[in-house]
Design a protein that fits this description.
CATH topology of the largest domain: C8orf32 fold
Number of helices: 6
Strand order of the largest sheet: 1-4-7-2-17-11
Number of strands: 17
Order of helices and strands: EEEEEEEHHHEHEHEEEEHEEEE
Mean pLDDT: 90
Distance between the termini: 14 Å
Strand content: 25-35%
Helix content: 10-25%
Number of domains: 2
Structural class: alpha+beta
Shape: globular
């Protein structure tokens, strides 16, 4: 079995603080992929294993992967999505396991004062790079009816931040959050037209509406998908994925907004516009995702778990066990330190 460890270069460093302050969690993750029922006739196997996003509010370290084949670390320069890529040959129907571990220092994002003009030297974003987040996605269409709703929601607003807030209020007031896509056939795909027609949806659908309405009014916006980490226990299984949004403001950069969480917790609805808590791990950004190297099948609607192809055809998602443990400190290893 191949074992690869990816960690910061340099000498051994001191461990972090023995306890995380409020608004921060230190977490160790242990992910097992149980890839069974591999057809005997497959000649070429391609696997993409997602890794959490690297960002100011999310530091990822001590990444290791154990599997039967050589591994490459790859990154999408447009989104920052990171993953391990593995290619293998015929297995004669023999199953396989892949074991991934990593540590995360996750911090609360926001809230920020979005009404005060940004200071000199504020964040500058290339306008060309933002065009990706103004275009439609396959299930986030920007047709006349969507643009009409956005126009009504933002009527009388001039500043982009006020428009974004008006859209957030429209979504959280006019739609109903479903706690699970199974409650309504067709929900859970992040389909803006479906959610607007039914006036309800799960977090993927609610986020799609916010993003689509923002884009329709000229505000760059994008989907984030990740894992919700339980708050009342220190260790256990991750059982829920979650979607939220980021919208872009000149001078401020990307601002989080979680309309689904605001609907789930009405007392914090205002807070979730411009802020998100530390009890989540961001895995990937965007919709219609093309991986690196590119998969042969169509782009992924969104992505938070292993995707693999057999002879360049999409295969079933395997059983995945995501264990987490809250820790008091995270060691920083020297590059190349053997995996535990």
């Amino acid at each position: 079995m191949l074992a690869l460890c990816v960690a910061p270069a340099g000498a051994q460093q001191q461990q972090q603080s023995a306890s995380a302050p409020a608004g921060k969690r230190l977490l160790n993750f242990n992910v097992r992929y149980l890839i069974d029922n591999i057809p005997k006739n497959l000649q070429l196997l391609d696997f993409w294993f997602p890794m959490p996003q690297e960002a100011d509010a999310q530091k990822v370290s001590n990444k290791t992967i154990r599997g039967p084949y050589d591994v490459e670390t790859t990154i999408d320069p447009e989104t920052g999505n990171q993953y391990f890529y593995m290619r293998g040959g015929p297995r004669g129907g023999l199953g396989m396991q892949v074991h991934v571990t990593f540590d995360v220092e996750r911090s609360q994002q926001g809230p920020r004062d979005l009404q005060t003009p940004p200071a000199a030297g504020a964040i500058k974003t290339d306008s060309q790079s933002l065009q990706r987040w103004l275009r439609p996605d396959t299930l986030v269409v920007l047709d006349g009816s969507v643009k009409s709703i956005a126009s009504r929601a933002t009527s009388g607003k001039r500043k982009p931040v006020d428009k974004a807030r008006a859209i957030y209020d429209y979504v959280t007031t006019n739609l109903t959050l479903l706690e699970g896509a199974g409650a309504l056939p067709g929900a859970g795909l992040g389909n803006i037209k479906f959610a607007l027609e039914h006036k309800k949806g799960d977090a993927a659908d609610i986020t799609a509406v916010f993003i689509g309405l923002c884009r329709s009014d000229g505000i760059p916006a994008r989907n984030v998908i990740g894992w919700l980490v339980p708050t009342l226990i220190k260790q256990g299984l991750i059982e829920r994925s979650h979607h939220w949004a980021e919208f872009h403001l000149d001078g401020y950069g990307w601002i989080p907004a979680d309309p689904a969480a605001g609907m789930r917790t009405p007392a914090k609805k205002d807070w979730y516009f411009g802020a998100i808590d530390e009890n989540r791990i961001a895995v990937s950004i965007g919709r219609d995702i093309t991986l690196v190297p590119a998969q042969k099948e169509r782009p992924l609607n969104f992505w938070a778990t292993l995707y693999w192809e057999g002879d360049q055809k999409t295969m079933a998602i395997p059983q995945t066990l995501i264990n987490f443990q809250e820790v008091s400190e995270i060691p920083v290893h020297t590059l190349g330190t053997p995996a535990p």
